């Protein structure tokens, strides 16, 4: 309560703006993920590793648009490319040279032969699922309980189901993520438990020759950070091969943030299809999805339809090219990793010193302080996370100028290439200051 009062005292202009927005925008925001109580902070401007709110408070930004800005705000190389592009046409709806250039950059890092571009992660996973259905002639997919893949009907199933709705761990019940998701869509989504190959095998056994693909985030990040246990991804690969299904890595977050070559390089497991978005655009909307020539050839053969007015928008493509060439470099990954380790080591020290019942998890540029009694292996473990303590942590950090993700369930921080040692030291000093109150 004390921290919320302080929050309200520091951010009256955001409160006012939110009150005004409520009259025109449901929940007063443009995406449900931006809404939280008592009201969300409104941004004035952002540069590098920081942003300022309407009241002029400055924050070290670790939310970074829900992890979509590993470039940091206004990265100079991205800005230069965008500025140049702005004067030479912002929309063509026709092919241009940057498509080939960026396709080459992406195919050099990820194990795909052909790709198509889009603007959002939702589009990337939606088109990929459709392609896999067409490639196998089967309608059903397996998705993991708690996994998030965007907002289309096949994805909005069992994202945050309530404990009383979900049934047996080995055969979780598929729960629509709100009204308006058709029953027929839900019926085509089979739910399995992350890190539990038996639950996946059970689906293949009970639905022989019906499952087109398994879709997953190789590191599940919608439940804090949930790492795949050794052998899990390899096991999924084997099960897909055995049952004639395709393996989709939703790398909307991990693609740019686990390291140079995304999850396939990091874990050494090769999926059949990859979805990319968020941090590949360096701050502009950009997504891509790709697979083998055989699968993507379904589009060439006019069997699967894909289009989009904004696909390969030249401004986004210019930003994407600059991002791949000058932001997502091996040197920058080394920088981000070094800072992440410094941060997590500092966190661990404080957690131990104050005796906090929590643990740290880190995956490339992402990290989280999990207020959980044991290591989270799946969605059900995550339900035991102390969400109120997580909220208390969030308000206390924000009130002192550090912005973790404003939701109590995602990875808590993304480290960008713009973050510095000084940012990390301030972050740790703030955590050191607030941690004793969390341990009470
Ligand atoms: N897939 C994953 C793993 C995501 O984290 C998200 C967004 O958070 C999406 C898909 C959807 O991306 P978008 O919000 O760009 O539609």
Any overview of this molecule?
Pathway: Porphyrin-containing compound metabolism; protoporphyrin-IX biosynthesis; 5-aminolevulinate from L-glutamyl-tRNA(Glu): step 2/2. Belongs to the class-III pyridoxal-phosphate-dependent aminotransferase family. HemL subfamily. Its cofactor is pyridoxal 5'-phosphate. GO terms for molecular function: glutamate-1-semialdehyde 2,1-aminomutase activity; pyridoxal phosphate binding; transaminase activity. The protein has 2 domains: 180 residues, Alpha-Beta Complex (Aspartate Aminotransferase, domain 1), CATH 3.90.1150.10; 252 residues, Aspartate Aminotransferase, domain 2 (3-Layer(aba) Sandwich), CATH 3.40.640. It is globular, with a radius of gyration of 21 Å. The mean pLDDT is 96. The chain is built from 17 helices and 14 strands. 42% of the residues lie in helices and 14% in strands. The structure holds pyridoxal-5'-phosphate. Pyridoxal-5'-phosphate binds next to helix 6.
Protein topology:
Elements (H helix, E strand, L loop, with lengths): L1 H9 L1 H10 L21 E5 L2 E4 L4 E4 L2 H4 L8 H11 L10 H13 L4 E5 L2 H16 L3 E5 L38 H5 L1 E4 L4 H10 L4 E6 L15 H12 L2 E5 L3 H4 L4 H6 L5 E4 L10 E5 L1 H8 L13 H14 L2 H25 L4 E5 L2 E5 L8 H4 L4 H13 L2 E2 L9 E2 L6 H19 L1
The structure holds pyridoxal-5'-phosphate.
Pyridoxal-5'-phosphate binds next to α6.
């Amino acid at each position: 309560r004390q921290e919320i009062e302080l929050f309200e005292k520091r951010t009256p202009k955001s409160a006012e703006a939110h009150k005004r927005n409520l009259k025109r925008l449901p929940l007063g925001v443009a995406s449900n993920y931006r809404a939280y109580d008592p009201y969300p902070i409104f941004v004035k401007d952002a540069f590098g590793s920081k942003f300022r709110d309407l009241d002029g408070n400055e924050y070290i930004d670790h939310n970074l648009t829900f992890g979509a800005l590993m470039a940091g705000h206004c990265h100079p190389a991205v800005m230069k490319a965008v500025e140049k592009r702005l004067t030479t046409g912002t929309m063509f709806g026709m092919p241009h040279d940057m498509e080939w250039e960026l396709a080459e950059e992406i195919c050099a890092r990820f194990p795909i032969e052909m790709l198509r571009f889009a603007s959002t992660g939702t589009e990337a996973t939606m088109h990929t699922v459709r392609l896999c259905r067409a490639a196998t002639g089967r309608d059903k997919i397996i998705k993991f309980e708690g996994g998030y893949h965007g907002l289309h009907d096949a994805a909005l199933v069992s994202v945050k189901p309530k404990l009383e709705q979900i049934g047996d761990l080995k055969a979780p019940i598929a729960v629509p993520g709100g009204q308006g998701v058709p029953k027929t869509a839900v019926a085509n989504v089979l739910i399995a438990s992350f890190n539990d190959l038996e639950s996946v095998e059970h689906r293949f056994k009970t639905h022989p020759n019906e499952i087109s693909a398994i879709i997953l985030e190789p590191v599940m990040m919608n439940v804090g950070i949930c790492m795949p246990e050794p052998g899990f991804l390899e096991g999924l690969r084997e099960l897909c091969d055995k049952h004639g299904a395709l393996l989709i890595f939703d790398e909307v977050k991990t693609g740019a943030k686990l390291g140079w070559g995304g999850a396939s390089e990091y874990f050494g497991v090769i999926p059949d299809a990859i979805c990319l978005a968020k941090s590949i655009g360096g701050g502009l909307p950009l997504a891509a999805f790709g697979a083998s020539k055989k699968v993507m050839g379904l589009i060439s053969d006019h069997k699967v339809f894909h289009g989009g007015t904004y696909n390969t928008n030249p401004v986004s493509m210019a930003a994407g090219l600059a991002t791949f060439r000058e932001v997502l470099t091996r040197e920058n990954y080394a920088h981000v990793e070094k800072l992440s380790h410094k941060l997590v080591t500092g966190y661990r020290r404080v957690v131990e010193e104050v005796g906090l019942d929590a643990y740290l998890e880190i995956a490339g540029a992402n990290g989280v302080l999990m207020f959980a009694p044991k290591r989270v292996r799946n969605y059900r473990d995550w339900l035991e996370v102390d969400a109120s303590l997580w909220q208390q942590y969030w308000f206390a950090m924000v009130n002192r100028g550090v912005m973790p993700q404003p939701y109590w369930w995602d990875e808590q921080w993304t480290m960008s290439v713009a973050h510095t040692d000084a940012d990390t030291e301030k972050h740790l000093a703030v955590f050191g200051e607030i941690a004793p109150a969390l341990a009470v």
